[in-house]
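Hi Y.,

Following your request, here is the sequence exactly as I used it, all 375 residues.
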Amino acid sequence: MLTPETRRADFPSIEGKAYLNTAAEGIPPLPAREALNHYFEHKSLGMECRDHLFAEYDTCRQRAANVLGFEEEEIAFCSSSSEAYNLLATAIAPESADEIVITDLEFPAGATPWLSLPGNPTVHLWKNRDGMLELDDLAALLSERTRLVQVSLVSFLTGYRIPWAPLRDLVRERAPQAILSVDVTQAAGRIVLDCQDADCLIGSTYKWLLGTHGGAVVAVPRTSSEKVTARAGGWYHLVNAFDADRFTRVEPKPGADSFAVGMPSFPAIYALSASLDYLDSIGIEAIAAHADPIVARLHEGLAELGIKTMSPFQPDASSGIVSFQHQRDEEIHAALLAENIHVMHQAGRLRISIHGYNQADDIDRLLGSLRSTLR
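Below is the corresponding structure, written out as C-alpha cells. Let me know if you'd prefer a different format.
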C-alpha cells in the first residue's frame, strides 16, 4: 500500500490514475474481494452458513477493536452511520429541557437526528471561524442541561481535525452529564485515533477503512455502556429476544451490543474484516507517517498557487482531507478529470483526500494540472 509496487499489487484498479477521493469512496484491497467470495461460498451452504457468518462477525469485532483501540466487547456494527446515530438518539432520548450541541462542520448523519426528535430539545450550533472550531465558542454553549455534544474528529467538509484532549476536558468540566459522541468516519483507518475516551464513536466503513457499503462501526467504552444503550426493537441486540416475556418487555444488551439491532450485514462484515486485517498488518501509524508529508506538500503547493484552503494546515494534527473553494471550480475539475486525477467536486468546493495508497507523484500531477489551468 505504501509503495508503488505494493499499491500496484493490492489496488490494481487505481493503476495509472491519481485517485484522491477516499473521503468519498475508499478503494478496497484485493483481500476484500476474496472475502466477499468467501461470503458467497458460505451463504450458499444454506442454514449451515451461520456458523461461518457469526464466526466472521466475531473476527471482525476483534480486528476492529485492534485497529480502533478498544476491547472486542466494546465494538458493534450497524448498516450505516445514519442508522447508528438514530439508535444513539434512542439511548439519549432528550426532552424539551435538554440541550444538544452540534457543529457546522458535521456530516448530516451526525447532525440531523437531533433536529427531528419528539422531545424537541434545544439544539445549539457550534460554528467554525475561518475553518476552525474555537473552544471558547463551545464553552458558551455548555451547561448542566447539555445532554449531548456531537463532533467529528475530522470534518468531511474541510478536513479540520479537532483538538481532542482540550475539547474532552472542557465538556467534562462544563457539562458533566453530557454524552460526548464523535464521528470518526473521516479519521479511522487514516490517522491514529486519540478519542477512545469519548462515550460513543461512530464511523462508516467504506471510506478510509477500505470496506464496502452496508457497514458502520460503533464503539462504546465499557465505562459508558449504561448511559449509551440503544432502546429499539429488533432481536439480535436483545437479552430476552426469545424468552417467554418477549411480548411484554424489551431488555437490550448494554453498550455497543445494543446497536446491533438485527441480522448483521454479513457481506459488509466479511469485506471489512479483510480490510481491517490488511490495515492492521501495515499499521495506522505507518500510514499516517507516509501520508502526512504528502498532505503537507499539497498545502505548500496550494499556497504557492495563491489558493487558500477551507481550514488551515495543522502540522501536528494533520488529516487526510484538504478542501478549497475557487471561482473556476468547474473548469479546474474538468481539467483534473481529463488528466485522470480524481477529487471530489461539490457546490463550488474541491476536496482532495490522501490515503496510504497515494504517492507524492499524485500531488505533483494535481498541482501541475492546477498550475496549467490557472495560468
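Residues 191 and 288 are 6 Å apart (CA to CA).

Thanks again,
Q.
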